[in-house]
Amino acid sequence: MKNLFTKILFLIWGVTNAQCITNGTLNSTCQGDGYNSSSCVQGWQASHGSPSVFGTVNANTWAWLWSHSNIGEGIFTNYNFVAGRTYQISFRVRTSTNVSNPNNTVLNSTANVRAVSGLTTTTSTTIPGALSGGQLVWQNTIGSNINNWSTVNISYTPSQNNTQLCFYPLMTANSGSNGRAQIQMEVDDITITPPVTSVFHFEDANNNMKTDFCLGESIFLDGTASFGENQYYLDVWRRPIGSTGAFQWQTQLGGNGWTQGQLGTLNLTSIFNGQGYSFVAGYEYQIKVATSSSPCVGWVPTTHEFRVLNSDASSNFTFNSFCAPDGTITVTVTASDTSAGLNHWWGLIETSIPNSTTDPNSSQVGATQSGNTTTFTGLSKDKNYYIKHGVYNSCVAWRESRTALPKTASWSGYTTNFTINASNVGNNVSVTAIANSNPVFVNHHWSISYAPNGNTSGNNPVPGNPIVCCNSSSATFNTNLIINEWYYIKHGIWNDCAEWGETRKAFRIVVQKLSTNGTPNYVVETKDVKEVSIENLNKKSDNTIIEQLSPNPTTKGSTCSFTTDSKNVDEVIIMDLLGKTSSVKFSIKDSNTITFSLNDSFTKGIYVIKVVKKDNTVSTKKLIIE
């Protein structure tokens, strides 16, 4: 059907195609009556009378026409005017009379241009009946153009089809009653620019208009709506689907892109396959078409695009769950098939059944998402979800995959650890626990319990102290706490990403030494003998273990040594497990070694050696005296 329709179009091309006007300059090879002789003024004839050739033959000639008493002369040429099309018509005109003082009746006579059909060449001066039909293109009174050449430009859209264009003057008044007057009309340099349009669309073999085609499908270009062309140009450009870059040139129709005739309907797939070029999937193609009516109308270009899509696709996908800064679960999903032109449908589905992807009572959470990858936020471990992913396009019927999501999501830097500081030690012991930082929001739970001998497995809360929950990253306990008693602080965290996690840390407050005024100084001693100095000492621990303390074990009265930066040592303290401290004299053996002696007052037991440094850090080491 496509091929037959194309052939019919070419058969009627000679009838419907708009053409260039012939000899619009009215060039003549003779003087006098040149319009009743086809050899003098090519393409033009006398519609009535004997129109004259004025000017220089073979150089610059024009038509001279007269009229009076409803008779006269006119010239015409054959030209196909199609209703509804717009033509640009231009010509030069000059009018005059044969009397020096024409009256208004004469001056109101008209110069006329009319589109008609049915004129034949005749020398009769009678106004042809055909001029009473057709359609008036232009009309002006003789007085408007008298004795002066002027250029007329008209945009003319006929309401009916006509096949001829006629120029003629018309004086209906009797010449004898008006001083034997007649009117004259001179015409030259006539041009007609025909309407040439470049109109096309794409369709399949069943005449369905479309811009998405499947791989292997025949692609037709329907240019039957174009008008006025006697040749057309066509070439092909492309770029990857989804790209915003420039289209890249691929090939052209024939040797130079130009083809004679009207555009009609073309099987692009067949034509370009015959030229060794194929349309492949994954690309958006731009077809550039220009139509022309040579030699009077240059090309009129139009471009349109279509896509070639794959006919197969996968709905599989991967996902990654992680904890967002607000403490909720975020899920990023990524399609396995990222073929260009494939549409993706993503839905987050909440269900009441764990790990279910078919629960009929499930419901979609939030809006549907699209694209090769997308992200869902605000999920909670307390709910059940699955991801539904569908793919489709005009070549791929809907396909989908579903995957249940895990209940929890981890994050880098997860910690339940905390530090303990003490203040107001004396009659009232107060400790503050401060959580180590998490990179995401977490809820906090704090409580304090007794820890006999540092054991944190019990659950015996210290009375008078509150349980602190849930937004505070620190907690202070200051009721019923005493020196040298073991307690533990329990710190739990949780959020929408993770279940409860906790750290229990045993500690006690012990005396470190007496200040110069006799006031005791205290430290927080944790079970792993890592302390933070407090109150008057106001020095911080670097939790560094002293290297190479020897001999260890040792005996009272012995001299011990340890390796450290000796020039930075400010004080050496020995503390027993009850918190009793003694400052001992030390000696600098060399730049890396400190020595000290144990007098007879030290009994057998376990001690902690504390080295207080000038940079306000404290190093520790366990020492056993046998």
Automatic annotation (TrEMBL):
Keyword Protein biosynthesis: no
Domain Secretion system C-terminal sorting: residue ranges: 551-625
Record-linked InterPro entries: Secre_tail
Transcription regulation listed as a keyword: no
Signal peptide bounds: 1-18
Any matching Pfam family: Por_Secre_tail
Keywords: Signal
Protein name per its UniProtKB record: T9SS type A sorting domain-containing protein
Lineage: Bacteria, Pseudomonadati, Bacteroidota, Flavobacteriia, Flavobacteriales
